[in-house]
Amino acid sequence: MKITKVYTRRGDTGMTDLVGGVRIEKTDIRLEAYGTIDELSSHLGLLVALLPADDSERATLLRIQNNLFNVGTHLATDLSQTPLYPSARLPEGETELLEQRIDQLNAILPEPQGFVLPGGVPAAAQAHVCRTVCRRAERCIYALIAQTTKQPNDQTTNSPNAQTTNSPNDQTTNSPNDQTTNSPNDQTTNSPTLHMAQYVNRLSDYLFVLAKIINFNNGVSEILWQNACR
């Protein structure tokens, strides 16, 4: 796809477009979430550039960068107003693939001896930068989930005075033990955005192990945290 014009001036007043054309303030947590994913992908690009051309992890990292476009598209979609496009969904099994790769790499490493200071060879140090940006992206996604699932003004289902649906005697729909209809956690558990957060969480774990394996393969010993409080 050829980009015919880079600038549009539509963002000059502090607003931008989501997927589907919904306008949103640039200070919104949603923008912070998918902007941090974009930042993460850029850091991953630098990590790939620092690795040797024949490094086996380059293919995995490029796959991750492609997946992050799906994650970013998902986060840039307000599900209350716009349906998800296929490009806003992760391919099936991507989180499990990360877990498998983590286990494979971790099996190569010596037994952990304590907390390590980020660093080592440049590629390993950059992997740690990617890891911390990834953690920030995860926090942003959970903040977005919290913002989009809370219903403080929902009088129909949550008001103690709404006798039609919230009577304490209405055991069918309003029992405090009725998790199917009344638990606020159900909205989070069933949120498709939660799957994005889970993927990003596993990605940060992968990047931690990757930093260690890069140093290990280069014969560089990690520096352990010296706990002065002992």
Q: Major sheet: order of its strands?
A: 1-2
How large is the share of residues in beta strands?
under 5%
Low-confidence stretches: 154-190
The main pleated sheet reads as:
2 strands, antiparallel
What's the overall average pLDDT, rounded? 83
What is the SS-derived class?
mainly alpha
Helix proportion range? 55-70%
N-to-C SSE string, H for helix and E for strand = EEHHHHHHHHHH
Shape: elongated
| Strand count | 2
Can you give a write-up of this model?
There is one protein chain. This protein has 230 residues and is mainly alpha-helical. The chain is 57% helix and 3% strand. The protein has helices spanning 29-50, 57-75, 94-108, 122-149, 155-158, 163-166, 171-174, 179-182, 184-189, 192-217; strands spanning 15-17, 23-25. The chain has a two-stranded antiparallel ribbon with strand order 1-2. Helix 1 runs antiparallel to helix 2 and helix 4 packs antiparallel against helix 10. The longest helix has 28 residues, at 122-149.
Task: Describe this protein with a few key phrases.
single chain; 230 residues; mainly alpha; 2 strands; 57% helix; elongated
